[in-house]
Specification:
The structure is a single chain. By secondary structure, this protein is an alpha/beta fold. It has two domains: about 300 residues, Zn peptidases (Aminopeptidase); about 140 residues, Aminopeptidase i, Domain 2. About 25% of the residues lie in helices and about 25% in strands. A hairpin with a 6-residue loop joins strand 21 and strand 22. About 50% of the residues are buried. The mean pLDDT is about 95. Bound molecules: manganese (II) ion (2 copies). One manganese (II) ion (MN) binds next to helix 6. One manganese (II) ion binds next to loops.
């Protein structure tokens, strides 16, 4: 199975194509972490999982989930073995690079109402200009109401966007480097151009605020306690004349989040407790209450142990984590035929060759990476080959070309066995990312095989 085009395995591609219809629907709706959690909860409920708040005790075979602050979910199938013997964990992140509205976003200039933004995660700023963008998120009012905002994703909605200079007047801009041509402070969105009246000092801005007030009953001040994210508008689409790929926003890392979740949902019974955890804030360092570094996950396992009747759940949670195996499900840099020089071709990820394992990521001399144990990697190879999963190995680019990280090291810090495993992506962090449908499917198959494979590992 190692390093072959996975399409050749399928005489009938229908299972691959059908699975990807579900995936396209998911990323079309789940454009930020809150919406991803909402969609995940729907899928969990439809597949017999119960919210832990409605559960008094747990036993083997039970299916439960925890939701943390609306942005983080951990779902479990309780195994036949005691939980402290360890879990099989699939972990992915559900935040993606984007533009966020500032706390005081609104201003008017030269007849336009504009929204000031601060970008989130690593972006090539020029990629976010002159494309259709949508506003999604929440505005939290002082009276406790949380107002859902979603403008631009429905084809009947208006869209917003970031303007860029016409080529005719870009002599100065074109002489700059790509990194400097578009300034972060200039990634502001255009919200309107129609004045409300003749009296107002900022009549165009006043008109936009009036519209927001009418539709959502929110005031300018309410945007101080808001989380409005500016994301690419419109649905995920088939890419390529052969429809072999999906173009969409947020494959990093919702392609791995969806396949991990579906792998758990489609698993019946397990010896080791199976888990899928979806976290926020990976793109900015996995920090804070809803990131992978949060105590949420450890606490959730302790709560499960308490519900299973364990008298020392916190200590048992530590043991459970130490005895766990994890796939840190995060996307890999797909080999781009237009830019071959950034990769070592024999250690690169290719679209269509299946689930990618990264023994390590990091930058420079593997800095900041979780360098996985070869004993564990051997177990993974065996598991994938036995299940007939197409898989490949990769590094994140040539040595010293750049680099990056995932949540792998954070769970590794609990002394569990972790390896990075994900889907190769083209255009990573661009508004339109590309994945191969067959890689999405192989990832799902690989994750499923990992959850059920039972064997003692060195
Ligand atoms: Mn990622
Ligand atoms: Mn990323």
């Amino acid at each position: 199975m190692y390093r072959k085009n996975a399409w050749l395995k399928y005489k009938d591609t229908k299972p691959v194509m059908d699975f990807n219809e579900g995936y396209k629907n998911f990323i079309t709706v789940a454009k930020n972490e809150r919406l991803a959690v909402r969609e995940a909860e729907k899928l969990l409920k439809a597949n017999g999982f119960k919210n832990v708040e409605d559960v008094k005790s747990v036993k083997a075979g039970d299916r439960v989930y925890f939701i943390n602050k609306k942005k983080n979910v951990a779902a479990f199938i309780i195994g036949k073995e005691p939980i402290e013997n360890g879990l099989r964990i699939l972990g992915a992140h559900i935040d993606s690079p984007r533009l966020d509205l500032k706390e005081h976003p609104f201003y008017e200039s030269k007849g336009f109402a504009l929204g000031d933004t601060h970008y989130y995660g690593g972006i090539k700023k020029y990629q976010w200009t002159t494309i259709p963008l949508a506003l999604i998120g929440v505005v939290c009012k002082k009276d406790g109401t949380v107002v859902d905002i979603n403008i631009g994703d429905d084809p009947k909605d208006p869209i917003v966007g970031v303007t860029d200079l016409l080529i005719h007047l870009s002599a100065d801009q074109m002489a700059k480097t790509l990194a400097k041509a578009i300034e972060g402070e200039n990634l502001d969105i255009t919200l309107g151009s129609m004045p409300l009246n003749e009296e107002d000092k900022e009549p165009v801005k006043a008109n936009v605020l009036r519209l927001l007030k009418e539709k959502y009953d929110i005031d300018e001040e309410d945007f101080i306690s808001a989380e409005i994210e500016i994301v690419p508008a419109g649905p995920a689409r088939d890419y390529g004349l052969d429809r072999s790929m999906v173009a969409g926003y947020g494959h990093d890392d919702r392609s791995c989040a969806y396949t991990s979740l579906m792998a758990l949902l489609d698993t019946k019974s397990v010896k080791k407790t199976a888990c899928c955890i979806l976290v926020d804030k990976e793109e900015i360092g996995s920090v804070g209450a809803t990131g992978a570094q949060s105590l949420f996950f450890e606490n959730a396992i302790a709560k499960l142990l308490a519900l299973a009747g364990n008298d020392h759940p916190l200590w048992a949670a530590r043991l459970a984590m130490e005895n766990s195996e994890m796939l840190s499900s995060d996307v890999s840099a797909g080999f781009d035929a237009l830019y071959p020089s950034v990769n070592d071709p024999k250690n690169a990820a290719y679209l269509g060759e299946g689930l990618v394992f990264n023994k390590y990521t990091g930058r420079g001399g593997k800095g900041g990476s979780n360098d996985s144990m070869p004993e564990y990697y051997a177990f993974i190879r065996n598991t994938m080959d036995e299940a007939g999963v197409n898989w490949q190995n990769a590094e994140l680019g040539r040595v010293d070309q750049g680099g990056g990280g995932t949540i792998a090291y954070i769970l590794g810090n609990y002394n569990m066995r972790v390896i990075d495993a994900g889907i190769p992506v083209l255009n990573m962090h661009a508004p339109m990312e590309i994945v191969s449908k067959v890689d999405v499917y192989e990832a799902y198959l690989g994750y499923k095989a990992f959850l059920v494979k039972y064997k003692n590992i060195m």
